[in-house]
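In response to reviewer comment 3 from the previous cycle, which asked for concrete evidence that the modeling workflow produces usable outputs, we include below a single protein chain processed end to end. The sequence was submitted unchanged, and the resulting structure tokens are shown without manual editing.
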Amino acid sequence: MIRAVLLSLSIALGALVCTSDGLRAQDVQAVSSPRLAAEAPELHAILDGLGMYEIIALMGTENTQGGIDIEAQLFPGAGGQAWQATVMRLHAGNRMAVLFEDTMSQDTLSPEQMQEIQAFIATEAAQRMIAGEIAARRLFLDPEAVATATDVFFTAVQEDDPRIDLLRRFNDVNGLVERNVIGALNLRVAFYRGLIDGGAFDNDVPEGMMLSEVWSHEAEVREMTIEWLYAYQLVAYADASDDDLEAYMALAASDAGRALNSALFNAFDSMLTTLSYELGTSAAAFIAGEDT
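The workflow returned the following structure tokens.
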């Protein structure tokens, strides 16, 4: 897939961060960052055409609510408006766009590869699938919608729906399950490292102990990733034909698709890792009572 489907920070942290019902999809607008548009307009046009800036804005909304929920679990009653302001500042949409662009290599694609990607984006099938991806991500701001979509996924598996096999190949081509599992675990490591560096614990926490704790949840993270990813895709590509998805896979398997997909994952991983670490260091201050 030429467009990275990354889990948000809130989803990646899993049991540590539980998103609540306070998300308002209608309030989420695409973010903007003028630097890349000025320095690499062709690459910016591709990212914009793929809906990256809308996805970043939606991830910011997910992460803001998830970050606010941390208070109830780690320092109940000690955060209040100060913690909410901190979380909102960290996840401001335009700030996230800058973090994303800072690690998006401007020489990711050759001119010929850019033309190949742009030609695909311009097709009706691609426009339909990209619009479906954004709409599904927006819908998934509602936990009830996620629960419903997950039930649909379970039913599809039980009934041997052929779309599941197609999506399995789709995800294998793009490495979406493995990339998201590793990314989610790395975000947990970054969050705990932020807690440690921020002084949340009275004693030093050995690196090995932290890594062991995080990786002990690998099976849980993998299960959560698979459920979320397939449920999301069943919604996102509901209006896409099998031929549409086959064309998407063909592009993803090309040199251009692989180069762009790798660059997108790297940029999202870097952005989310930074945010996860900052969230950890900020939470540590509240745990230690420095900002109460």
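The two ends are 45 Å apart (CA to CA). We consider this sufficient to address the reviewer's concern, and the full set will be provided in the supplementary archive.
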